[in-house]
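Customer escalation, tier 2.

The customer says the design service returned an amino acid string that "doesn't look like it belongs to this structure." They asked us to rerun it and document both sides in this ticket. The original structure tokens are below, unchanged.
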């Protein structure tokens, strides 16, 4: 399909040093026909593993925008959206490279956004290696913060927030509230902050569960899963409390709480951050000074106790 006849839809994929995952994402888009149907923009934030060169060789129709390694997720998404806007984009698709879409998934998101242009719509995704486990999707708000909910299948449901893995945004949203701001939250939380701003500006948020979307399981350095067994210094998890790009950083939690709850966000932040992040990190960081074999025994005892 000639570039000139592509729809004014721009799929924006932020990447950094995950060449094989990125190429698998592009191959998935190619198989679904989205690579031919839409414009695809990869924002390569300073990869040193040959990501850009591989894309240029295998997918010359894909636009690659370079970064210097300091864009992170929010900055990369903003850069891609600004480029797409200048090219005449009517719809922006956020897509993480570890997200595998299915046939018509992006088409249906665009169609929904075209029909309801005062909305933002995303998909519910499942772990590729464990399809019964929800990896991302629609969230509802409570005093505990936002919780991912398993919405009914084969429909579009209104929600309070979305994970930024696969989201369709109409141009009028950008016209009204601008772009995500990497100066506030450069990485984790940047998607949520933008969507909260959009919701408060009058846009509704929906999650689409009609298509199977899968997440390629991995353990991000800034959002580790296996705290007790992660390789590295015993304080590697504790240090993430002071890393602005990490999901464990206090600033992510307090800014999102304040943006959505205002003054009530302060006690919500204190209770949830201390209970969910600070105390567990301190406990785990203390245990990480113990030998690995002993930590496995503790983990096994905890599983049996539960």
């Amino acid at each position: 399909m000639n570039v000139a006849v592509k729809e004014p839809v721009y799929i924006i994929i932020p990447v950094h040093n995950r060449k094989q995952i990125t190429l698998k994402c592009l191959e998935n888009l190619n198989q679904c026909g989205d690579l031919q149907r839409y414009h695809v923009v990869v924002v390569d934030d300073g990869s040193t593993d040959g990501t850009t060169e591989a894309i240029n060789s295998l997918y010359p129709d894909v636009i690659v925008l370079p970064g210097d390694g300091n864009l992170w997720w929010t900055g990369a998404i903003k850069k891609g959206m600004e480029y797409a806007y200048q090219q005449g984009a009517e719809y922006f698709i956020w897509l993480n490279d570890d997200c595998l879409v299915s046939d018509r998934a992006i088409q249906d998101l665009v169609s929904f956004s075209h029909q309801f242009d005062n909305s933002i719509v995303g998909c519910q995704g499942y772990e590729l290696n464990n399809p019964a486990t929800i990896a991302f999707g629609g969230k509802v708000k409570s005093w505990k913060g936002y919780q991912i909910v398993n919405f009914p299948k084969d429909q579009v449901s209104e929600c309070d927030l979305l994970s930024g893995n696969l989201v369709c945004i109409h141009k009028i949203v950008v016209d009204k509230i601008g772009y995500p701001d990497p100066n506030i939250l450069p990485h984790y939380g940047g998607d949520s902050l933008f969507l909260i701003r959009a919701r408060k500006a009058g846009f509704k948020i929906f999650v689409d569960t009609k298509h199977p979307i899968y997440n390629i399981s991995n353990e991000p350095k800034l959002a580790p899963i296996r705290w007790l067994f992660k390789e590295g210094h015993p304080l590697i998890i504790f240090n993430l409390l002071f890393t602005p790009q990490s999901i464990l950083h206090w600033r992510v939690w307090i800014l999102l709480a304040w943006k959505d709850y205002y003054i009530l966000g302060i006690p919500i932040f204190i209770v949830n951050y201390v209970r969910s992040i600070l105390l567990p990190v301190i406990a785990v960081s203390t245990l990480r000074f113990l030998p690995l074999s002993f930590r496995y025994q503790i983990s096994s005892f905890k599983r049996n106790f539960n």
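Tier 2 assessment: The sequence is consistent with the input. The mean pLDDT is 92. The first helix runs from residue 19 to 32. Sent an explanation to the customer and offered a walkthrough call.
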